[in-house]
Amino acid sequence: MKKIIAAALVLALVAGSAYAAEWNFYGEAMIYTVWSETDEIDGDDGHTQFAEGLYEAAAIGAEVKVSDELTAGFEYGTADGVADIVLLYGEWDFGSGILTVGRALSPINVAYSNQLVAGEEEDLGLGGFGDFDQSEITQLKLTFGGFSIALINPEKDAWVAVDELNNNADTYETQAVIPMIALCYKAEFDKGEAQVSGGYNTFEIDDNEDIDAYAIGLGSQLNFGALGVFATFVWGQNIGNLATGTATGYEGLAIYNGNNVYDCESIGGTIGVIFNVNDMLTLEAGYGYIHDEIDDNAWTGNESNIAQSYYLQAAITLAPGVTVTPEVGMIDEREAGQNETLYFGAAWAISF
User: Which residue has the higher pLDDT, 173 or 272?
Assistant: First the structure.
């Protein structure tokens, strides 16, 4: 009898907690179908290839309101077809500000493009082509109005090492004594928003070399009735070591060859136009550019890498929550010593 009473009390407590919180679930099933053709550097033109798969952006999650002061949320994505945690956070509104604990959107989120299809790559969004975006990341974050600052686990294992110079990269030792810092100020107004974000990260490698990463990103999105425009700008040193890389061969990373550190300076930006034709059709065109340069790098003999991407898409709403988005675009990494890919495809999504 005591066990029955105890079980009933536990169920009552669980039911009471569930009843007290407001749970708003959401989800989106999203796949890509795409044809792509890649021209190889110093090689033959590639054959046309078809691919179909589930976007990592396909997700299921919930927003939770416990009280006026406490809110939370979670989201599972589908990286490689396997459920993974994209968001898992709690927020406490203590009056003068908000404390966020967990995996949430970073203050470094200077990205507006909706680019979707690029070969078998997923929801690219001009990622690495001139944006500045840490996306979702584990953090402690404080927000005061339009200003936010976060402490993040330092990136300290992200340098580039060349196998032929030192084939035991896993023996390198690193030490970080302060967290990575990310901050942003965002101003919202009737016509859109503008923001400035920055980040800093530092760690020591092999007890004799420091790798310092810092960057600043600017961005704005403006709406003029049916017409919208966006633009971003990023500049920094070793921004790949801020967990926000570039699309060039260097990926915005510092290079360590076992003796010296070569810093990577990156500069780039994006620009785009969005036009809402009607409730069923939205057109978008965008362009992104990034330039990486390694300082004093006589070691590789190739100090400069450039990559760019551009696209045109048409988002079509077939019914509430049902969309298909055809897109044609180019991923041009020839000046980075890589490939050039022309693609045409579509993203298919049903939200629920």
Answer: 272
